[in-house]
Amino acid sequence: MAVDRRKLIVEAATKSFSLFGFKATTMEQVAKIANVGKGTIYTFFKTKEELFDEIINRLIKEMKQAAEEVINPSFSFYENVHRALYRILEFRLEHQLTIKLFQEEKEMGTPAVMEVMVKLEQAILNYIKDKIVVAIDKGEIQPCDPEITSFVMLKLYIALIFDWEKNHEPLEKEEIAELLEKYIFEGLSK
Amino acid sequence: MAVDRRKLIVEAATKSFSLFGFKATTMEQVAKIANVGKGTIYTFFKTKEELFDEIINRLIKEMKQAAEEVINPSFSFYENVHRALYRILEFRLEHQLTIKLFQEEKEMGTPAVMEVMVKLEQAILNYIKDKIVVAIDKGEIQPCDPEITSFVMLKLYIALIFDWEKNHEPLEKEEIAELLEKYIFEGLSK
DNA sequence: AACATGACCAATTGAACAAAACGGTCAAAC
DNA sequence: GTTTGACCGTTTTGTTCAATTGGTCATGTT
Fold this sequence. Notes:
Two copies of one chain form a homodimer.
Chain A: H1 5-20, H2 27-34, H3 38-44, H4 48-70, H5 77-94, H6 96-107, H7 111-137, H8 146-163, H9 173-186
Helix pairs in contact in A: 1-2, 1-4, 1-6, 2-3, 4-5, 4-7, 5-6, 5-7, 5-9, 6-7, 7-8
Chain A binds a DNA duplex (30 and 30 nucleotides) through helix 2 and helix 3.
Domain HTH tetR-type (chains A, B): 3-63
Organism (chains A, B): Anoxybacillus andreesenii
Protein name (chains A, B): AcrR family transcriptional regulator
């Protein structure tokens, strides 16, 4: 085995999806970039979607890894949630692939992309949910529904990072951390 | 003046926008429903967009009125915010026009509709913001940025009412009130 | 024998053109 | 003065058809 053809294909597809999106990437182009015949792709992946799915699963793994890297057990729960969520959402702004897919989802509504973005969001939600379950067990936060809480946290973050920018000056990372603390962890009541 | 032609036109347009949306409503159709000539519409409104705008301004007024009706000074601030926001968002589910426009915004992205929906959201935000400013003055809640707080509240409500339903059983009105209280007014910290 | 390949296929897409429908105007009718 | 619908330039929609696509498989290569 001179070269790992499977790896070549996945790398080529990642490159092309990142550059042109899912729909505008043709299997012939992937084959050409990977320097393999088109038929070879189909010995490893049944369909274009399956190839796409493999790449997304890798992306999810990478995001989890990136999140784990900024988490520090000596920090408080909310500090860690903030750091993890912020890091995960930074991905969207840093990685060509997520930028392109986010754009394709909004502008073209490509079904395969829509599906995959749901999967990605679900992965993030599950990740946060697990953290919340642990925090409740440890008594770091009040008991609450982890499903709803992770949902609320993610929506709040997306709103503060992406939606807020549409009409206002972007918020600093520290401001967002303060807001999370203020709203979710302290509350506004007197 | 046997009949108020302007009123007839606005009523006809409201009916048609509610039934078919903005794009699929033609000025000829509005004229036919209103029993006036097409040219008559243009003696009152310069463009189709201007007619649309008038209708939206009426809608905003109606929403404010509906919100005011459920507010009760003897209730707490957060209870009133909940009632007002819930009532406003109920509009989307009750009124044909808002349902149709919400759908047209998402599915077709008609520019004039997008614009108007931003205006509608802005009106809601300003309404909540005013309530927050008063509440801070009265010392009912901690000092906070009213702009961000109203933004967070609305996004949280939209997430809990509309987004949550996409993957879960809808939340009851009381559950949403509890969640708002838990997250925004108490916090999760121990 | 095992694997890799690109010519090939049915299905989908999109460019190009024609026809219909549209928002808006205005001279005529009332 | 007010109302109107035939009319206009533009945009949207429907249609056609050639090019492209995802996927297969008989053939070639090692």
